[in-house]
Amino acid sequence: MTEITYYGHSSFLVKIGDKQIVFDPFISPNTKASHIDVSKIKADYVLLSHGHEDHVADAEAIVKNNNAMLVSNYEIAVWFAEKGVEKYHPMNHGGSKIFDFGKVKYVNAVHSSTLPDGASGGNPGGFVIKHAHGCFYYAGDTALTYDMKLIGEEFKIDFAFLPIGDNFTMGIHDAIKAADFVGTKKIVAMHFDTFPYIEIDLDDAKKAATKAGKELILLNIGESITL
Questions:
Q1: Domain annotation for the chain: domains and CATH numbers
Q2: Strands, E, within 9-158: which ranges?
Q3: How far apart (Å, rounded) are the C-alpha atoms in residues 97 and 73?
Q4: Does pTM top 0.85 for this prediction?
Q5: Fewer CB within 10 Å, N- or C-terminus of the chain?
Q6: pLDDT tens across 132-144, in order?
């Protein structure tokens, strides 16, 4: 079982055993997450899917507050190293690394990636995390892609963090197809309702998921669940 806490937008804390992994922390600039105190977040690892501000805003603070390990693609890892992050691990598409909480594979995403100061964020990606008690997919920001079928062929995915906000990423209907491709019935929704561009009808999204035989998990900011 995996414990998940939602911090808004695409930001999650995932507990695997005694390790805590933060994904794409965009918390302090998000007015909808104003009740979350970034300084109190405990993390052993921070994983970043790409370089956009709405995915990396609080990464430096969380890493430095906890002496955590930052994991991302090469360009992003080096960019943070130049900002004084001492513990980092660079990856690139198709590569895997075994950490003390499990195995991480950096997989393809179809999006863009520019860091807050305009520097190149390299190629965007997602993560497949395989650990002692299960396996999940964090898609990052992405379009639907046939590459997701390769994930389903290689891994038994228990659940997937998928964007559903449309406009900049997949919408709910493509997210449902993505869940089919990776072989899971459970979608943990992300990247929706934070900004006007990605505001969606949540009731319609729920109906679409139910009709397709999927469980669409829509967490409140600050809420924790176990999957």
A1: 3-226 (3.60.15.10)
A2: 11-16, 19-23, 45-47, 69-73, 88-91, 96-99, 102-108, 125-131, 134-138
A3: 12
A4: yes
A5: N
A6: 999 999 999 999 9
